[in-house]
Specification:
Elements (H helix, E strand, L loop, with lengths): L3 H13 L9 E7 L5 H15 L3 E6 L21 E6 L6 H12 L4 E4 L17 H10 L5 E2 L5 E6 L15 E4 L4 E2 L7 E10 L9 E9 L2 E6 L10 H15 L23
Parallel strand pairs: 1-2, 1-3, 3-4, 4-11
Antiparallel strand pairs: 5-8, 6-7, 6-9, 9-10, 10-11
């Protein structure tokens, strides 16, 4: 019979052992934007989650370059995903690739999106999938991209009223500044809850007032995390990395450390592509 000491040692070994691949939640990042270098920033975020949160990650990207709007090979990885994370901009994917995304979106599994995924698709007029240009972001992420405040402006971010204690915001500063220019996305649907609010700094265009930069939704058991942040320089801000990583963990239903996830990482922001 196992002694009490041996039993304690056995339990301790189990607790310290790494999760097997089968037990680890599988996050699939789908990147295809030709401005914000998501093919670099999303693998960086994935590296944090793999190192600190016991998940495994797969990243699929537009090929042969981020500017390739009609090819993201490897989307079949979504079939085994526990969470899909999209960072897309104006794609026009062929039907066989698109179907992987649509099947995932129609499933009860959680979903997350970054910045330009509010305008993930741009199928030409009269294309059979033209309706997705507006319907996909509205249905999957809650809102479409309307306009922004100008590329030379930036954004001050604060916690939305009443949300300071939300688990996603553990360890996130109550106020911080980011490089990305503010997107106009209001009004959000009633079932979306803003967590962080942005205010444009030195807007070049009309000031549309405060706009959500992070929101969540729970609908029929399916969780959504979305942020309009995502300029490569944004990820130099610890609070941005933390809210992004913790938003994905929340979507998965994972526990978030009381003081926030350790999001330290070696990261140098790449230059954006000209648009």
């Amino acid at each position: 019979m196992m002694t009490l000491m041996r039993r304690r040692e056995w339990i301790a070994c189990l607790a310290a052992a790494p999760l097997t691949a089968a037990a680890q939640p599988h996050i699939v990042f789908v990147t295809g934007d030709d401005e914000y270098r998501s093919e670099i920033t999303m693998p960086m975020l994935a590296s944090i989650l793999e190192a600190k949160a016991g998940v495994r990650c797969t990243t699929v990207s537009a090929q042969p370059s981020p500017q390739s709007k009609e090819n993201i090979p490897g989307l079949e990885a979504l079939e085994t995903a526990d969470l899909a994370v999209f960072y897309l901009r104006w794609r026009a994917l062929p039907e066989e690739q698109l179907q992987h995304i649509l099947r995932y979106a129609a499933s009860p599994r959680p979903v997350a999106g970054f910045r330009t995924s509010t305008h993930a698709f741009r199928y030409p007029k009269d294309h059979p999938r033209e309706n997705l240009n507006l319907e996909f972001p509205r249905e999957v992420f809650g809102q479409i991209w309307t306009t922004h405040h100008g590329h030379r402006s930036s954004t001050d971010v604060t916690v939305a009223d009443g949300q300071r204690d939300h688990p996603i915001l553990r360890g996130v500063e109550p106020a911080f500044h980011v490089r990305s220019w503010l997107y106009h996305v209001t009004p959000l649907p009633a079932d979306c809850t803003p967590l962080l609010i942005g205010r444009a700094v030195n807007p070049e265009r009309k000031d549309y007032g405060p706009n959500p930069v992070v929101w969540i939704r729970e609908r029929d058991g399916k969780r959504l995390f979305f942020t309009t942040l995502g300029h490569p320089e944004d990820f130099t801000v610890e609070s941005v990395r933390r809210v992004a990583a913790q938003g994905l963990l929340w979507a998965l239903g994972r526990k978030i450390p009381r003081r926030g996830l350790d999001v330290r990482v070696a990261y140098t922001p790449p230059p954006t592509f000209p648009v």
